[in-house]
Write a structure and sequence with these properties.
The protein has 13 helices and 6 strands. The protein has a 6-stranded mixed beta sheet with strand order 2-3-4-1-5-6. The site of magnesium ion has 5 residues, from helix 6.
Length: 289
Amino acid sequence: MKSATAVDAARVELLLAELRLPAIKLVWCDLATQADKEGWPAARFLATLAEHEMAERGRRRIERHLAEARLPPGKTLDAFDFEAVPMVSKAQIMAWAAGDSWLEKGANLIMFGPPGAGKSHLAAALGFALVENGWRVLFARTTDLVQRLQIARRELALESAIGKLDKYHLLILDDLAYVTKDQAETSVLFELIGARYERRSLLVTANQPFGEWGKIFPDQAMTLAVVDRLVHHATIFEMNVESYRRRTALERKRGPGRPPTGDNLDENPASRRCHDREGAIVAQAHFWC
Ligand code: ADP
Ligand code: MG
């Protein structure tokens, strides 16, 4: 470096450390050399350094948000085979991955389907894409989260525990209707859903359609009220396909070059069954029957 003396350089290093500007600390010396050599105006040099720090901070923030999201590893949209679930449109999911059209409104996404249909994968992949786009997400197995909330309630801290989840623009409740819930479990879960209503989004995956929820949750009136809130601003994906694992295992057995198994897959886009709000109302009506 020509223009900065060794003393200046040492001062800069110390000051940048004190100011907590680690990204600038890493690059300033090389950039200063380049700026001196190419005769950059001082403002350009400063702006380049600031931009570098901003970009690094953004990258570190996303890294932090990815760590806190507790997403299952490897479940990305790139790794998701959309052909296996023809009722789910890739273009629509890509639009959802941008986040702004629904997370700002606190709208919900509900995915129904049998085990292995790809609900958890798609939910996690969407969560991952949203974090990369700057949103905060938490992926939770519903039973684990319910246990945590029950502990909070015993400690008289349920409200604050639910409040802490507000920082997440999207809360993914995986396997909501997986095991039968008792009254205490149901009530913390329903308090959580009620607290987020029209403010913060939920993505719910469930093996059982609404019609079966009456068997899973003990309190019918409470269940109706919660379903009502969940579906009010919701899009529902009915992923009624054969288990992906089973399907791929069968395909492997058949060997390459054979047609896919998709007996129950319908390639006709007209048959796609993704319900928006109107669909939600249909599902709700189904629940009420
Ligand atoms: P579900 O939550 O509906 O029970 P999962 O998402 O756990 O199903 O899927 C089971 C396994 O199959 C996972 O390893 C998942 O990554 C894989 N899988 C399911 N559907 C797809 C798909 N369409 N493309 C790629 N992998 C899939
Ligand atoms: Mg699952």
